[in-house]
Design a protein that fits this description.
By secondary structure, this protein is of the alpha/beta class. Helix content is 40%, strand content 23%. It contains nine helices and eight strands. Helix 8 packs antiparallel against helix 9. The mean pLDDT is 94.
Length: 261
Amino acid sequence: MGTKTEFDSKEAAGVESLYRTDAAERRRRFVRTQLDPQPGESILSIGCGPGFEPVELADAVASDGRVHAIDASEPMIHLAETRCEDHENVTVQRGLATELPVEDGAFDAATSVQVFEYIEDLDAALSELERVLRPGGRAAVYATDWDSLVWNAADRERSRRVADAWADHCPRPHLGSDLRSPLRSAGLSIDRVAPFTIVETELEDTFAGYMRGIFRSYATEHDEFDTETAQAWGEDLRERDRNGETLFSLTAFLYLVSKPE
């Protein structure tokens, strides 16, 4: 992860594993429920990642609908193309959220799940989102506020330092709670804001477990940490898990928005 939008093949495979977890599947279902895709609709998936979302949206819009999936990362595009190859109503294309390679007003709906936090020019990305929606079209914009993060670590001070370092991994770590004004400035109406919290009590093959590895790797590369400190933090959580004391919690917010008629 990080401020970059490009991934190498190994990193993309790690994200794919994260997206296979129960928590990630529940998150996608939550986004779909809020968006409420209908048969025959055209939907844009911005930052489609390894392609789980486009496949599920394609099933929702059925054969008369279509899904256009965009991602900035070539390895992610490869994974998405492979995952979507049996869905004739899905198109996968490499592109930037700030320069969407689609026509004005082309979509009934759009999704963006943890994409805009990683974009420096947020205004440009939201302007593009508004541009590609038809009048009356809607979008589900999902973003995290990393201040909501809870790790049940024995050494809470060290864990706080790791979390503070992690806040540097993207330009907008608190976007989840700070999206209303930018959305309105882009000309979008906010219909509702809905929270989604991931709570997990195990590390093995879970969203929390994968995030522990990502956090530890990031802390190792951070100027304020050495490898020993980052590994000690990770082992702290692993020891908690062996004792049945894991607790991970993270809250994000989904903004259901619409483009005025």
